[in-house]
Write a structure and sequence with these properties.
about 260 residues; alpha+beta; four-stranded antiparallel beta sheet; 11 helices
Length: about 260
Amino acid sequence: MISASFTSQLAGIAISGNYDDLDELHTAIHEVALPSDPIAGDPVGTGREIRVSTRLLALAYDIRHAYMGDREIQFVPNRVRDGVADYLGISEDSGEIRYSVNVLYPEAIFELMAISYLIESYKGRLVGKRSFSEYDAKAFRIPLNKTIAVLRNCQATVAEAVKTELHQNSFSRWLKGVENGYMYVGGLIPQWVDRKNLEYYRASEKRRRSLIVKTVGDMSLLPWHDDDYQELFEAVTSFARENNCDISDVRCGKYDAYPQEIEW
């Protein structure tokens, strides 16, 4: 079973599971994501869908390396009660290996919303439509789908981890923001996500706690009313137009300066 928790210094979210758990999550992400360079026969998404997919696929890459043993590894003892192990003929010292990947908190919020954003597109593909909306849902029955279930379970697990750090009223605002904010992530420039990752990481642990709810707004509706976002948006989009490239290819030096070693 997938589990999630804040890292010790609140720098990010740790997502962990056994080999099968993470392999299943990795596969589900690839099911809903749209590749930037699709092969013949693959669905082709909009520029927004591809940019969101690219970021989510980066998480899938880390998840894959986690269960390959390239990230955090933990041995978890079994929970067999006294006497049961003898009855079953197994060692009381047995357990399982769990693999873990850490994600900076703002990035994790973006990924939660990105999953919902791409699930809506994925639903459309399931019923043979280019686009999908809540109005379409009334007309088309989406069959029970394991891919969607795996991704929703991951979202719910992260939400439970966040809930442990917030009062009920704050968590209700957090949850509402995450559930509604996915509609806006397609329009976010990726440089803004990098900026928020670094700003959050450079904050003190006490300050990070106060940013848990605010970060949801930073990843959804609020940026459109933020002068800093508008300034960055204009700079990035203008450069992309002048150089005939996608906005995801634009590099902003100070927002690319991730530390080589992150103190989680």
